[in-house]
Amino acid sequence: xxxxxxxxxxxxxxxxxxxxxxxxxxxxxxxxxxxxxxxxxxxxxxxxxxxxxxxxxxxxxxxxxxxxxxxxxxxxxxxxxxxxxxxxxxxxxxxxxxxxxxxxxxxxxxxxxxxxxxxxxxxxxxxx
Length: 128
Description:
The chain is α+β, with helices and mostly antiparallel strands and 128 residues long. The protein contains 4 helices and 6 strands, in the order βαββαβαββα.
């Protein structure tokens, strides 16, 4: 399934993540998944939220730079090689996977959030 993801650019210093999460809390944003990546100077907080557009506006109002883009959310099955098969389908149609991270799921063991360079084409390959 295609879902919207909020990416927030954070300065890499103590307290920045706390500030960003507090902004989302005050905006009453429920986070369904979160991934954090960093370099020595900045970090990127990626969030699957119940209202990504409202979350983006809250972050913008607080002076943070953020974007909303489409990613794929795939329910993982308890089967050996299942994720490998999903990745093979995506790469088999010439789509590049830029990054991925796991998220909790009520329906299965977990969801895999996948950012590609062509989400629609990747979803079509997965759905086969």
